[in-house]
């Protein structure tokens, strides 16, 4: 077999997970013991779209996000990313996770690795890229989040906002076709929130598919194609961002928005 012209193995059309994949969630149920947290959630994100998920604390937003990349296993329902059925018991979970970037409220950087290493470790171990290539990709993404000059610093030498930008660069270094954000600015000092949101705006403009749990209503209104309001483990209401925020139909949505706006 000739390998002379073989491309580097990576995500391609046969992978079932194209660049900027769509997400479809159908009738998702998740319980912890007798506590039913997700009670039949259905929602979709078109390829290249941004959906913001809002709702009170405890409504199941994080659980939903964690089900999408199988950090939690739902009991019932279906999740598809591109052509890839995540909830298929035969699904190759590792392959799916390579394509899904996740950014958490608490950054979760590796404290013992510097910024560059944080952005290369998964590329080396999971994607099996060589070191030079991994560092090239990482530096490109650090540039993208405005932190190229911090490559040699350790997480505890950075502000919260800078750490979160590294977390975004780290996720992007895996070339994800979907990015999940779980309250990415909730733990930040107010003056650094804007920098992180600006990077997320750029990502959205570049056509990344994004599912974002956030209380930043201005961001949701400006950037999201759709806003989904969850309460008590169900989708209460969803609609075009500006419309849902301006004139929510459901009393529960109205009450929530009047508290956060
Ligand atoms: P949100 O992100 O909207 O605040 P969560 O998805 O974190 O909501 O939590 C929804 C509910 O599920 C809460 O009642 C929470 O206590 C419960 N819960 C979340 N994770 C677990 C877990 N691992 N074990 C048991 N209960 C959990
Ligand atoms: Mg949460």
UniProtKB/TrEMBL annotation:
It is found in: Cell membrane. Pfam families: ABC_tran. The keyword Heme does not apply. Its main location: membrane. GO terms for molecular function: ATP binding. Residues 23-257 form the ABC transporter domain. It is a peripheral membrane protein. The keyword tRNA processing does not apply. PROSITE patterns: ABC_TRANSPORTER_1 (PS00211), ABC_TRANSPORTER_2 (PS50893). Keywords: Amino-acid transport, ATP-binding, Cell membrane, Membrane, Nucleotide-binding, Transport. It comes from the Bacteria. CDD domains: ABC_HisP_GlnQ. SUPFAM superfamilies: P-loop containing nucleoside triphosphate hydrolases. Belongs to the ABC transporter superfamily. This is Amino acid ABC transporter ATP-binding protein.
């Amino acid at each position: 077999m000739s390998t002379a012209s073989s491309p580097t193995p990576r995500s391609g059309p046969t992978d079932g997970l194209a660049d900027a994949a769509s997400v479809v969630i159908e009738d998702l149920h998740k319980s912890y013991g007798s506590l039913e947290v997700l009670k039949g959630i259905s929602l979709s994100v078109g390829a290249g779209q941004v959906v913001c998920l809002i709702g009170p604390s405890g409504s199941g937003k994080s659980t939903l996000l964690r089900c999408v990349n199988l950090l939690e296993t739902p009991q019932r329902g279906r999740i598809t990313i591109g052509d890839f059925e995540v909830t298929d018991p035969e699904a190759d979970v590792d392959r799916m996770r390579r394509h899904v970037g996740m950014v958490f409220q608490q950054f979760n950087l590796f404290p013992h690795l510097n910024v560059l290493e944080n952005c290369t470790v998964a590329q080396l171990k999971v994607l099996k890229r060589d070191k030079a290539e991994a560092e090239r990709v990482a530096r490109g993404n650090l540039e993208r989040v405005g932190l190229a000059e911090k490559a040699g610093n350790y997480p505890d030498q950075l502000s919260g906002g800078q750490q979160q930008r590294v977390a975004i660069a780290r996720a992007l270094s895996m070339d994800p076709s979907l990015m999940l954000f779980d309250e990415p600015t909730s733990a930040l000092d107010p003056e650094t929130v804007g920098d992180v949101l600006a990077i997320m705006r750029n990502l959205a403009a570049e056509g990344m598919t994004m599912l974002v749990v956030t209380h930043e209503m201005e961001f949701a209104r400006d950037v999201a194609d759709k806003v989904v309001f969850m309460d008590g483990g169900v989708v209460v209401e969803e609609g075009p961002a500006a419309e849902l925020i301006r004139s929510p139909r459901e009393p529960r949505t109205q009450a929530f928005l009047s508290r956060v706006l």
